Amino acid sequence: MGQPKVTVLHGPNLNLLGVRQPDVYGYETLDDVNNALGETAEMQGWDISCFQSNHEGELIDAIHAARLDGTLAIIINPAAYTHTSVAILDALNAFEGRVIEVHISNVHKRESFRHHSYVSQRADGVIAGLGTEGYQAALNAIIKSCV
């Protein structure tokens, strides 16, 4: 058996991380986030796959692929799909590993429509408001829980 694997999924507009609303999301880019996660995963002996899409169906396809490729856990920041996508919830419900939902901002301090998450109904854990450090917290929790 190879290294344990985690898949990180970034939803719509996260490709603009670092330039879109830096007062809310900070100045780190998505590459910065993915590179830091890759370093942590490598040091812990994990394989990591990071994927971003602005398209719901591509995120669902990535979840389906994770079901079949030996992925033990998914870290997902569904971004705006958090509040709208029953389809992503259904895909995650078909995934048997751990799921941690991450939000860079504290969605509960923002507009009321952001207070509801479909994904949280499946997530084993939710991290919100820690900035991009939330991704590292999610990865560390997965590594500790899957050993």
TrEMBL record:
Which Pfam families does the entry mention? DHquinase_II
Q: Which NCBIfam families match?
A: aroQ, PRK05395.1-1, PRK05395.1-2, PRK05395.1-3, PRK05395.1-4
What role does it play?
Catalyzes a trans-dehydration via an enolate intermediate.
Which family is this protein grouped under?
Answer: Belongs to the type-II 3-dehydroquinase family.
**Tagged with keyword rRNA processing:** no
Q: Where is this site: Transition state stabilizer?
A: R20
Q: Name one GO molecular function term.
A: 3-dehydroquinate dehydratase activity
Which InterPro entries does UniProt cross-reference here?
A: DHquinase_II, DHquinase_II_CS, DHquinase_II_sf
Q: What is this protein called?
A: 3-dehydroquinate dehydratase
| Enzyme Commission number | 4.2.1.10
Record keywords: Amino-acid biosynthesis included? yes
Reactions listed under catalytic activity: 3-dehydroquinate = 3-dehydroshikimate + H2O
Question: By which gene is this protein encoded?
Answer: aroQ
A biological process from GO: chorismate biosynthetic process
Top-level division of the source organism's lineage = Bacteria
Q: Assembly state and interactors?
A: Homododecamer.
Sites where the protein binds substrate: N77, H83, D90, I104, S105, R114
Q: Which organism is it from?
A: Vreelandella venusta
Task: Give the pathway annotation.
Answer: Metabolic intermediate biosynthesis; chorismate biosynthesis; chorismate from D-erythrose 4-phosphate and phosphoenolpyruvate: step 3/7
Q: Which HAMAP family match?
A: AroQ
- What keywords is this UniProt entry annotated with? Amino-acid biosynthesis, Aromatic amino acid biosynthesis, Lyase
Q: Where is the active site?
A: Y25, H103
